[in-house]
């Protein structure tokens, strides 16, 4: 049975960085650290055998395991007939037998036995599941937190990371990154604590399942009684249904309780229950008291850009009615409220250019040239470069405008438009100090396009205006190379 939420599409405009980092961390730990466990296991078993411990402990272990597991004669004979390495590994990894062994009077009286055992156990404890796994009967803070980042095998890792991605994507946006991370870790700890309180067993537990179950509980706590979409897979039945999120919590709890009662596999259902309940309560209770901040716009699928789009539509209506004075008057306020928005800059540029509004054009150009995303600004940069060639555009012909225009055009590979801006700068009365360097950059760009005439023009300018400059020498070498 599989029932998972399918309410929010993946929105890569707001990438879940913490979720992706958690997935990366778990994956790196599995392959980079846990990948050495097989060698550690082999060394531990060899240390056990080299210490002569199998001969000392074989009969004691057979008696202990037969009593605990209620083995009949055939089963006991099977265990006794195991290969030396297999039986040694079983004995060494049986922590409950180890606990009883350490309490025996003959073990405590035999220093050689203790030393050999200590060496084998220290070798075994280098295995990831024993070093950082959680053993309820041997409580440790390392295990409490470390077990969340270990996995039993690749399929265990793959399944957990898939569910971490599905639930974490929406929750990280809804709760905020740091609250989400804190609640994730809290759920993992709570999962182990419930296991420790209810069943203090002598087995190692690893996996992010408890923390991920916490994400499932958080999801229900965030949406509450809001009706959301779920995907289900029940044997041959596959599809979607819509229901209040809270209604699914008993279903998930029931599934874990059923698995716990069946107890037919190695799944830690107690940890799942602990994480599920902890995640739900950690979100649901603060939500009821208004103490947990949640992105309600995201939950309601509200477009965070809706106010801007409404303002843009209103501006378009004004332009469509040729109310240019009103549009120009609103321009500075809109630029202040929505800085760096290419769609707004394009519209207000047209208004400022048509009215020769120096103040508005200056505000538009300042934001345009400050845009970090060159591709976003490129269409308007091309338009300004083309408009600069038209008569009567005295505001655009200012050297500062052409200088700020030249650099991004070169960076974008717009050779001919950049050449036009360069000509306007080079012909001005006051040439900027950056001009020789920009001239060389432009020459290299034109050289890539085999524009030899343009390169010659640039080279002649540097020879005449900056004969001693290093850029003049470099451009001469470039010209020679292109002439071959």
TrEMBL record:
Molecular-function GO term, any one: serine-type endopeptidase activity
Subcellular location: Membrane
InterPro entries with a match to the protein in the record: Peptidase_S54_rhomboid_dom (IPR022764), Rhomboid-like_sf (IPR035952), Rhomboid_protease_S54 (IPR050925)
GO cellular component, one term: membrane
Transmembrane parts of this sequence: 15-33, 129-148, 154-171, 178-196, 202-223, 230-249, 269-285
Pfam families: Rhomboid
BP GO annotations: proteolysis
Record-annotated Peptidase S54 rhomboid domain positions: 143-285
Keywords noted in UniProt: Hydrolase, Membrane, Protease, Transmembrane, Transmembrane helix
Domain of life where this protein originates: Bacteria
Membrane topology, as annotated: Multi-pass membrane protein
UniProt record similarity statement: Belongs to the peptidase S54 family.
Protein known as: Rhomboid family intramembrane serine protease
Organism the protein comes from: Aquipseudomonas alcaligenes
